[in-house]
Automatic annotation (TrEMBL):
Keyword Oxidoreductase in annotation: yes
Pfam families: Sacchrp_dh_C, Sacchrp_dh_NADP
Protein's UniProt name: Saccharopine dehydrogenase NADP-binding domain-containing protein
Taxonomic source organism: Candidatus Heimdallarchaeum endolithica
Keyword Lipid metabolism appears in the UniProt entry: no
């Protein structure tokens, strides 16, 4: 029996745990500070729980000592330190945290500790990287990678027409962190929310796309590709509302004094937006992702297109963004804990795609969970 501990019982963490526990060879424990979330998992699934403060690294070190694998599903601001702590303890980890720090700074530590540390193992970053890694390994020369991705509520509610499937503070990071991408072999840095465009998507109609900093590890591992870009999708009009908040200072981390009390505007904003963006029980959502990769094979210009439009699971009552993110993570975690995928180093998700056997298993297992891509391959005229 393999023992896995999931750090975080949020919308995605609880789905990862629920999926892993379906394997009779895996015993699952979830650690979180939220007793209500833990009670839900303990009372409805064969999942053990531990209530503890994840920010206390001393406690974390003691708790994870008895487990074969750790899954990181904590908010981004806790992600790097949590990952570092787990690696220092010599524990394998599969992580989905959207942290700002460079994960490659932990590569040598992972090698020294003999640890498999898979980072950014969600949907995007994550599944999008894995697909690029696979295509890059089967093409002679990749020229461009373009990814459009977003999680959207089925019902559009004023004023934001958006719901957050994960921590609002992590969503705000998408709107404030400078967006990095590559054009004609050169790194370009622009403000998040820039280069807005309206595009048509099958099954969704018109959506708004804008720059965000989603390429992450691809900027290093795929730096031979001269054009790399990811853009986030929202319903039209969302960008302008967010830009007003950002430019007014509502996302600032610099403290201001209000009637003798020092507060960070971003703390207040995230509290207010949590109420507006919180998905209520039964609220349905979509995950939409379109990936286009172009390159050369045998003197032909080939385009691969992967299109995903995933929906809320009414039977299991699982939101789509938690499905697509959580299942990618849980499938890879299952392979790691069973020793079927175990490079002893830090692993960005695109390297997973280069292993064709693992890529095939992942895509097959996603299909079993009704996460299905529409895939087309066509020759482009030169």
């Amino acid at each position: 029996m393999k023992k896995v501990i999931v750090l975080g019982a949020g919308l995605v963490g609880n789905v990862i745990a629920r999926d892993l526990v379906k394997d009779p060879e895996i015993e699952v424990t979830v650690l979180d500070i939220n007793q209500e979330a833990l009670n839900f998992l303990q009372n409805n699934f064969n999942i053990q729980v531990i209530r503890a403060d994840l920010s206390n690294t001393d406690n974390l070190r003691k708790i994870i000592s008895d487990f074969d694998l750790v899954v990181g599903a904590v908010p981004g601001f806790m992600g790097y330190q949590t990952l570092k702590t787990v690696i220092e303890e010599g524990k394998d980890i599969v992580d989905i945290s959207f942290f700002d720090e460079d994960p490659f700074s932990l590569s040598e530590l992972a090698k020294e500790k003999g640890v498999t540390a898979v980072v950014d193992c969600g949907v995007a970053p994550g599944l999008s990287n894995i697909i690029l890694g696979y295509i890059n390994s089967i093409m002679e020369n990749v020229n461009s990678f373009l990814c459009y991705v977003g999680g959207l509520p089925v019902i559009r509610t004023w004023p934001y027409e958006y719901k957050a499937p994960f921590s609002p503070i992590d969503v705000i990071e998408e709107y404030t962190r400078p967006a990095r991408f590559v054009e004609n072999g050169k790194l370009v840095v622009k403000p998040a929310l820039s280069d807005a465009e309206l595009l048509e998507f099958e099954g969704m109609g018109t959506l708004e796309a804008f720059n965000t900093d989603g390429l992450r590890t691809l900027l290093k591992t795929m730096n031979h590709i001269p054009n790399l870009k990811e853009k986030t999708l929202r319903y039209p009009g969302h960008i302008e509302k967010i830009r007003i908040l950002r430019e007014t200072g509502f996302f600032s981390k610099e403290k201001i004094n209000v009637d003798g009390v020092d507060i960070k505007p971003i703390d207040l904003t995230s509290k207010l937006l949590f109420k507006e963006w919180k998905l209520r029980p039964g609220e349905e959502d979509y995950t939409i992702m379109e990936i286009e990769v172009e390159g050369k094979n045998e003197n032909k210009i080939i385009q691969y297109r992967y299109y995903l439009l995933d929906r809320y699971d009414k039977k299991e009552k699982i939101i789509s963004m938690a499905r697509t993110t959580g299942f990618t993570c849980s499938i890879i975690a299952n392979l790691v804990v069973k020793g079927k995928y175990s490079p002893k180093t830090l692993v960005p998700p695109e390297l997973i795609g280069e292993n064709h056997d693992i890529f095939k298993i992942l895509m097959t297992e996603l299909e079993k969970r009704n996460v299905r891509f529409k895939t087309t391959v066509r020759e482009l005229k030169i």
